[in-house]
Amino acid sequence: MSETTDTEGTASGTGTTTGPVVPTTGPEPTTTSTTGEPGTSTTTGDPSSTSVGTTMPDKIPCDSEETEVVPVPPSVLLILDKSGSMSMEQWDHDAKPQTADVTRWHSLHQVVEGVVTMFDAMVHFGVKLYPKIDAGSFVNVGACEVTPGVEVPIAPMNAAGVLAGIPAVDYEVLGGTPMETGLKRGYEYLKTLDPSLQRFAILVADGEISDTCQGENFLEAQAAVEEAFGTFDIATYVVGIDVDPSTSEQLATLAIAGGKLKPGPDPFYQTANQNELQAAIQQIVKDTLSCVIAVDPAPSEPELFEVWIDGQPVPNVASCDEDGYVWSVPHTEVTLCGSACDLLKETGKVQALYFCNPG
Q1: Confidence of residue 63 (pLDDT cuts 50, 70, 90)
Q2: Would you say 139 and 177 are in contact if contact means Cβ atoms under 8 Å apart?
């Protein structure tokens, strides 16, 4: 689900249950045993009859009563600036003047570690660095060189791989800012991934493209971002690390081209300390999570189908202008809207409940 009412990705079922673990409008069947896990109870008796056997409820659980689904994780490539200024420039990492400042790279590493760990099960992460990981300070020692491909390919449960593939928290990163080539290499990789899945880039930079990196051209970088979004549906978020207002125009333009503008007057996420950087990247990653779920199997009686999140029913609504869910593909896919989408992002789970007419 997206903060701007975008709908991204799909979800798949994780199994069905056959026990009466969901609410019905009639009385509940008798539960005889459970394993202690949700959705593993067994039942006896006729679920279509009441305790006195005289009144039929208006609906009963079908053969597939409940399917718990989670959104399919999006593919997110972190395109990270590791230029020399990330080591040479220090800033306030905790918004507390009494504590010592740290380098920008120190903060970025800690933020990446926190975010990829937090979202490890929900997002497939990878990393592209610019310049290359072993770049030196000058052009003749690789300051403007970018390695082909990516340093960390996108993969499930990849937090450990991400942290192993980037410089350590106190590493003295060096190099210029070959942002154009870094973006192009990142998009080349993202284009090889399954286009039916959602693909995103998060560009993090502490300034504009280096003038000393010959061949690096901002207009070419902008064109690459526009093509990725417009032709390949790869959106780009842009995060600035204490970017000087006089040089922020490039990042603002790239954010607009990437199709994922920060809410508010500034199109990119400008951050002044580590706390703000953490909040920005965490919000962006949350924004990539999907609000679209596959309904499998399709309900035999869709008018009785229900969606529940966190123990509460989600209403079926006419459009995503309302809070609830809509059939985005009739009876095989639903999209959660508004507060329902927000709640799914918080919980990471949704239940599809199947009911049938009795008799």
Answers
A1: low
A2: no
